[in-house]
Amino acid sequence: MQVSDDRPESSQRPSTNTADAADSTRAAPSLGWAVHLCGAVIVASAALPVTTDGRSFAALLLAEFERGLLEGFMMLAGFGSPFLFGLAITVVALPQLRSLAIELVRTPIGLMHGQLLLVAFVVWRNGEAVGGAGLFGFAVIGAIAYARSGTRAPGGHALGLAGIVRWGAIMVAGVAAWCRLQRLADVHLGLAVDVILGAALLLVVLSSRTAKPAVAPPA
User: Which residues are registered as beta bridge partners of 181?
Assistant: First the structure.
């Protein structure tokens, strides 16, 4: 009798786990290989020249870590947030991380907004860069909209993973475009800016095609 009683319980466990895994997968559908590839391109651009003297972000980050762990992590969380955004888009291709996809992608976007507000304010106050006021306005409006929206899109719909990716891609593309605008002031940044701009614009297009807001459940 004990053997017959144990068998139904053990046979039910795999089906429960399978159902949970299926629910997690449905909660965050795949973005498509092209979206993940764009994220990987953004990450890889960290090794490309980004400063006017030809240094890459990876080299700058390594120099900060040589100064200390705190300096390195602050650099990574601040100026490195676009690369963390790309990394998040890349790793959520793994089925094991599908259930955490939305939070993994949202976290670096929040870091981007905070860093952009700080940098844009300093740039605007100095008044030397081209379009400093526009960058600051972009930072303020974006941060307010991001803070108010949460995971909701206009119309009360739930903002899915593709919509969050699109939001982050718009932020990255906007900043990269502003960096490229500095050519008017004879400030020539490295190839990484162009690569990031291209990948971010492509992300906007690709995520717009796959973003389908779902109706929010009643409170």
Answer: none
C-alpha to C-alpha distance for 83 and 66, rounded to whole angstroms: 20
Sign of the CA dihedral 113, 146, 175, 170?
positive
Provide CB contacts within 8 A for 50, sequence distance 6+: 56, 57, 60, 189, 190, 191, 192, 193
User: CA nearest 157: which of 211, 90, 197?
Assistant: 211
Predicted structure pTM score:
0.77
Residue 214's φ and ψ, nearest 5 degrees, are -100, 150
Q: Mapping DSSP to helix (H, G, I), strand (E, B) and coil, where does residue 80 land?
A: coil
- Total domains present in the chain: 1
Question: Nearest CA to 29 among 210, 215, 218, 219?
Answer: 210
pLDDT tens digits for range 169-194? 999 999 999 999 999 988 899 999 99
Q: Which domain holds residue 9?
A: 2-215
Let me know the angle formed at the C-alpha of 158 by 153 and 162, rounded to the nearest 5 degrees.
Answer: 80
Query: If we measure between CA atoms, which residue out of 47, 29, 34 comes closest to residue 199?
Result: 34
As a whole number of angstroms, the distance between CA 162 and CA 124 comes to 32
